[in-house]
Amino acid sequence: MSKKLSNEGLREVWDRYAPRYDRDIGFFERIQFSGGREWVCPQATGDVLEVAIGTGLNLPHYPADVRLTGLDLSPAMLDIARTRAGELGREVELHEGDAQALPFPDESFDTVVCTLGLCGVPDEREAIAEMHRVLRTGGKLLLLDHVGSHHRIVHFGQSLLEKLSVRMCGDYQTRRPLPLVEQAGFVVQRQERLKLGMVERVAAVKP
């Protein structure tokens, strides 16, 4: 298995990558994740926490009446998100922090959103448990990510790519977070697999 990057290593990687992130992710958005942000964000209501907010690419897609908080490990990514929010006239409270240890009290939010973020967290089980903790009863969890395909040939290719991507930027290709979401105590209301099973959208609720 490829060696995991520490949080400090991940922060350095994403700080360096921040200036070109939007350009590079735009390519994958078109071929792999098209419509994903538009699927996730309009479902958010009330007090919303976006985990791994990155450069704020989701900001244009939220309803106008939600109250947004964003968290990311990378200060450079947050700087870009802050600029984007200003350009959009969108109020958002931004925090530097770790998805595995969210700096918020229990039951602080009505919705937690994470798009293309769980694949880059060292321990996705801890991150999902933290999302459950900070959600209020009846709150929604909304996820979008690339996941391990059920097609064996595709999964084999993902496994090969993962050996490089984990070492370079902490990005896992073969994770399947849905069982962990259910184990954390969420009730899955909607789940979709797209692109040969490599992309997953999940809407779940904390009962």
Automatic annotation (TrEMBL):
<keyword id="KW-0808">Transferase</keyword>
<dbReference type="InterPro" id="IPR052356">
    <property type="entry name" value="Thiol_S-MT"/>
</dbReference>
<dbReference type="GO" id="GO:0032259">
    <property type="term" value="P:methylation"/>
</dbReference>
<dbReference type="GO" id="GO:0008757">
    <property type="term" value="F:S-adenosylmethionine-dependent methyltransferase activity"/>
</dbReference>
<dbReference type="Pfam" id="PF08241">
    <property type="entry name" value="Methyltransf_11"/>
</dbReference>
<dbReference type="InterPro" id="IPR013216">
    <property type="entry name" value="Methyltransf_11"/>
</dbReference>
<feature type="domain" description="Methyltransferase type 11">
    <location>
        <begin position="49"/>
        <end position="142"/>
    </location>
</feature>
<keyword id="KW-0489">Methyltransferase</keyword>
<protein>
    <submittedName>
        <fullName>Methyltransferase domain-containing protein</fullName>
    </submittedName>
</protein>
<dbReference type="InterPro" id="IPR029063">
    <property type="entry name" value="SAM-dependent_MTases_sf"/>
</dbReference>
